[in-house]
Amino acid sequence: MTKAERTRETRERILAAACEVIAEVGFEKIRMWMVAKRAGVSTALLHYHFETREKLFTEAMTYSFAQTGTELDRDAGSVPASVILARILNSLLPTDPELRQDWRLWQELWVRALRDDSAQHLAIDLYGQLHTWVAEALQRGIDSGEFAPCDIDTTTTLLLALCDGFGIRLMLADSRVSLEAAKGAIWGVVADALGVPAKFPAL
């Protein structure tokens, strides 16, 4: 392994550890030594890569977001557009332990964004990337004839808002909202707008 590869591996290990710790204790309570311990590195090495908690938080959010994006890109060119869209929407809900961790990070970001300009800019940028993912999936389906034409920006904004709203209720373990009901309601909007079957596709 080259020096550059070792450096990249160390940074990724630190960022993965940071995601775990931030999700567990929250940004306000996190200490750099907690992340160093979880990552198996010295505090000095952690500070070498990330000078402040704020920088670590920002890069951890970006790292977590990128990991989800990488997963969504798998075999994207060989499956129906409805499945690609369903995978994206599924990833925007707390559907498994890893995505619940991502949701805790998002919630930390939302809180920070209310009083910190850099966090606000990061949140808006990440939402922009989410908007692009959903919009591109819609455009792919329209181009292939699988989806009926729609106002892509409006539909994308609505789907993101629905995922946020249902996601919050699911994270709160609200007994009036189940994961299957949430997915069904969101896909109902997709079905009406795009002219596809009302059942959420198998992933």
UniProtKB/TrEMBL annotation:
Residues 31-50 bind DNA. Residues 8-68 form the HTH tetR-type domain. Keywords: DNA-binding, Repressor, Transcription, Transcription regulation. The keyword Membrane does not apply. PROSITE patterns: HTH_TETR_2. InterPro entries: BetI_C, Homeodomain-like_sf, HTH-type_TetR-like_transc_reg, HTH_TetR, Tet_transcr_reg_TetR-rel_C_sf. This is TetR/AcrR family transcriptional regulator. It comes from Streptomyces maoxianensis.
